[in-house]
């Protein structure tokens, strides 16, 4: 193993070597059983005498940190060594970051997993995907240098064609920018458009990670009520210059934005010289009703940035998303991408391009839609027969929202993971209900999970102090962007 050792001055060089190896062992950088460089090799690298290195090694052996094995070399002792924690430090982030919630590590799936935004990995055509990725890795094994910040050209062309056919989005190859999921797309848009202190309007209830992201970029975030037709356009603050909406399948309620409301929002944006972010996060899965035209295709003033993701259609772990922006924003967005992480994994992007071009994506979506439609129908029917719940009508996506009737709340239930509606509210008073995802749970497990859910309903007077965390048992506001 190559070990970094820095020698300064002409003092006791053996002591310097000893101290740096000791710190590496105590810090856990050198672990029990790892082999150290031979004394001759390390002495040559450091340009010191072999005897100096040998003195340091002998001292570490005498102290019990190293052990020599005849004919094999010198190794870190097999005896357990307690690692030293890194210093906590005194440097603090900006006050805004201290006000944001801590990142919650993913938890093991519950027995009845109704978490939001989690697709079923068993439906994913892994063998076909593995074949395509392996092909691209072989083809690009000798590739060197960086790529276009906009992403793999073949994938941008395939996405433009795919969303043009499936969603009527008007886009060419040059209009598409590949991102690491929808969340990075929102980050890039915010970096380019949000001035410190600017007002950004979001849906209420709405997608919490977007709200927090805009706050982190220095925006004042205003929640705007959502009704059965979508965002309440007259309620959008007149100072807002950026509006974030999910019109195809409002998150988390699930209702689509009406055509009249879409027209009103576009007219408002033109009057106010504002920009609309259209997040089309799970529009692939539709179980009925003809999909309405996206805002992007209705826009004639170039004020809509369309955001999409493959996290639901494929797998969240692939981290593949995209945005389609007006030409006036494209250079700035490319520059922002280059300044943050330059570009994503090009072999993976090339594999997705082939996945789309070979018709595998369309075939997978058709298969998954049939399965998700069956789960959606099963859950919607069961919930509609419980008078304590008020199901919000929806015909797409991977979740159903059910509002709690007056006087009803939910107690924690071991083995049940379900998101509370409160977790997606940014304004007071919070709305009460449940967001029930069906991407991660098997169809045959749904009846048992719903029985447990019904058993967890109780009178509101017993509502927990922190119902959002008590009820969730899961992601607490994420839909895996």
**Global Rg:** 28 Å
By CATH, the superfamily of the largest domain comes out as Type I PLP-dependent aspartate aminotransferase-like (Major domain)
Give the tally of β-strands: 17
**Which bin fits the share of residues in helices?**
25-40%
Number of domains: 3
| CATH fold label of the largest domain | Aspartate Aminotransferase, domain 2
Assembly status: single chain
- The class by helix and strand makeup works out as alpha/beta
Describe this structure in words.
The chain is α/β, with parallel strands linked by helices and about 475 residues long. It folds into three domains: about 15-75, Arc Repressor Mutant, subunit A (Orthogonal Bundle); about 110-120 and about 365-470, Aspartate Aminotransferase, domain 1 (Alpha-Beta Complex); about 125-360, Type I PLP-dependent aspartate aminotransferase-like (Major domain) (Aspartate Aminotransferase, domain 2, 3-Layer(aba) Sandwich). Helices cover about 35% and strands about 15% of the residues. The strands form four sheets. It has an eight-stranded mixed beta sheet, sandwiched between helices. The longest helix has 25 residues, at about 360-385. The radius of gyration is 28 Å and the shape is globular. The two termini are about 40 Å apart. The model is unreliable at about 460-475 (pLDDT under 50).
């Amino acid at each position: 193993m190559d070990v970094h050792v820095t020698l300064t001055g002409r003092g006791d060089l053996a002591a310097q070597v000893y101290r740096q190896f000791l710190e590496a062992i105590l810090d856990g950088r050198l672990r029990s059983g790892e082999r150290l460089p031979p004394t001759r090799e390390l002495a040559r690298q450091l340009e010191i005498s072999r005897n100096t290195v040998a003195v340091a090694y002998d001292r570490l052996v005498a102290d019990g940190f190293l052990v020599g094995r005849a004919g094999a070399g010198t190794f870190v002792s097999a005896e357990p060594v307690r690692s030293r924690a890194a210093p906590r430090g005194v440097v603090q982030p900006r006050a805004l970051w201290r006000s944001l919630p801590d990142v919650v590590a993913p938890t093991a799936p519950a027995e009845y997993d109704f978490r939001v935004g989690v697709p079923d990995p068993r439906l994913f055509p892994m063998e076909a995907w593995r074949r395509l990725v392996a092909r691209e890795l072989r083809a690009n094994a000798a590739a060197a240098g960086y790529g276009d910040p906009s992403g793999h050209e073949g994938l941008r062309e395939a996405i433009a064609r795919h969303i043009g056919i499936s969603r009527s989005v008007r886009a060419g190859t040059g209009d598409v920018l590949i991102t690491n999921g929808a969340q990075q797309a929102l980050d890039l848009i915010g970096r380019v458009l949000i001035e410190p202190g600017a007002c950004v309007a979001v849906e209420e209830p709405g997608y919490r990670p977007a709200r927090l992201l805009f706050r982190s970029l220095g925006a004042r975030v205003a929640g705007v009520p959502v009704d059965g037709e979508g965002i309440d356009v007259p309620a959008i603050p007149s100072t807002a210059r950026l509006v974030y909406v999910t019109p195809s399948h409002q998150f988390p309620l699930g209702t689509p934005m009406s055509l009249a409301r879409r027209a009103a929002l576009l007219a408002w944006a033109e009057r106010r010289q504002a920009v609309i972010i259209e997040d089309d996060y799970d529009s692939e899965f539709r179980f009925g009703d003809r999909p309405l035209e996206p805002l992007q295709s209705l826009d004639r003033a170039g004020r809509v940035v369309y955001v999409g993701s493959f996290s639901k259609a494929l797998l969240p772990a692939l981290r593949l998303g995209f945005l389609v922006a007006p030409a006036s924003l494209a250079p700035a967005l490319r520059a922002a991408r280059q300044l943050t992480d330059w570009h994503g994994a090009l072999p993976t992007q090339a594999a997705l391009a082939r996945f789309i071009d070979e018709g595998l994506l369309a075939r997978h979506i058709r298969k998954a839609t049939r399965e998700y439609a069956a789960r959606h129908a099963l859950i919607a029917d069961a919930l509609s027969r419980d008078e304590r719940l008020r199901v919000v009508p929806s015909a797409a996506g991977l979740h159903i929202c059910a509002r709690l009737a007056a006087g009803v709340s939910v107690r924690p239930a071991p083995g049940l993971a379900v998101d509370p509606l409160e977790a997606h509210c940014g304004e007071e008073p919070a709305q009460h209900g449940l967001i029930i995802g069906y991407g991660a749970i098997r169809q045959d497990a749904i009846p048992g999970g719903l029985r447990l859910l019904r058993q967890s309903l109780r009178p509101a007077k017993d509502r927990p102090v922190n119902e959002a965390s008590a009820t969730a048992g899961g992601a607490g506001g994420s839909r895996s962007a």
